[in-house]
Design brief:
By secondary structure, the chain is an all-alpha fold. The chain has one domain. Helix content is about 90%, strand content about 0%.
């Protein structure tokens, strides 16, 4: 039974890995790579300074801040970079709690 679960999990994670690798190799992925450090800093600063705002309001600030610095970057790349930065920030916060 455990082997079957392991096999199914491997297939699922393999597909997810393939998906992320495809995105990473795309133009959007290259743009995300270009702005990822900035996105992480922007998201962390917004949370520190404006933690009481709604998620949408925080996103608007993050988006406009990044777009001003990188006007050539496509919206999809900015959105993905913001979402990834939020996920990383939440992971860091969770590690501190545990």
């Amino acid at each position: 039974m455990f082997n079957k679960i392991k096999e199914v999990a491997g297939k699922i994670f393999g597909r997810v890995t393939d998906f992320f690798m495809s995105v990473a190799k795309s133009t959007i992925g290259q743009m995300v790579y270009e702005i990822h450090d900035t996105a992480e800093k922007v998201v962390e600063n917004i949370e520190k300074e404006n933690g009481n705002l709604s998620n949408h309001e925080k996103w608007e600030i993050a988006y406009s801040t990044i777009k001003k610095q990188f006007p050539h970057i496509r919206d999809a790349a900015i959105n993905l970079a913001i979402e990834m930065a939020v996920a990383l920030m939440k992971q860091k916060m969770l590690k501190r709690i545990l």
